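Every protein is a chain of amino acids, and every chain bends into a shape of its own. The protein below has been through that process, and both of its lines are reproduced in full.
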Amino acid sequence: MSFKFATASPTFGIGGRLLLDKPVAAPLRSLPWPKLHFAFPPSNNKRHERVLILRCSDSSSTTPTVTNASPPPVIRKRTRYRKQYPGESKGITEEMRFVAMKLHNNKGKELAAGTLTDSKDNSSSDEEHDIPDGDVETWQSSIEGFLKYLVDSHLIFTTLDRIVEQSTDVSYAYFRRTGLERSEGLLKDIEWFRQQNIVIPEPSMPGITYATYLEEIAEKSAPLFLSHFYNIYFSHIFGGQVIAKQVSAKILQERELEFHQWEGDAAELLKGVREKLNMLGEHWTRDEKNRCLRETTKSFRFLGQIVRLIILL
């Protein structure tokens, strides 16, 4: 709508007020500003000067200019994916295995390292804590040292059995009566030594320290305890029993201990434990898994102290 000024004679009402030919549909201030055309019609009335006649008329409004500018491009942020830990795609036990292999490959003797500190704080020298270089047969093993190893091992496996059997944590229920239990077999072996009139020693400090630590973390965190649970059996099946067999064959005239006998395939039994632990590990946070990896290092170093009892007099 726009405004035009007519050239006809003005129309006046009472009192000389200017009358509109057509009422305005809306207040002027609410209407768009039109283009104004001014005209001054001649007037025959000398009493009045020329006046403007305001007349409203409909007309087509001008088409607004449309800008065809394209919107600015949308910049999408690149999705950053966290780099996976070695073995993470297969489960927490595979991650722990990588940690164990890394320890084992560090000069070939980290599995028996004697330090209990975390790897970040490991400033002790190898000479103070590691077992001697070379094959197991070069060790100066003795029946007394081997018996200490069996007694401390019995304490550790008995502690594991008691925790998983008595704990109210539902996570531990998956690891009861797995077929991996070693405490009964160890007890039979220790009894055999007693029958040979050999004095059975009390558990030594490495075994007592580790057993106490297991009880403490079992109350605080199931993931941390289960990390030790798995690594103890893993290290015994693939490392500890190999050493013990060689030593027993040397000092016990190749007597086969109950400690090394299984009802079934030990690797298959461990596989069942591995699958259950991986299943639980899917519900753990990345922080909990990282703590389990740190506990793996501690576990092998605790066990390394116990294995080292074989060569200590």
Notes: The helical segments are 92-105, 126-129, 143-166, 183-195, 205-220, 222-251, 266-281, 286-307.
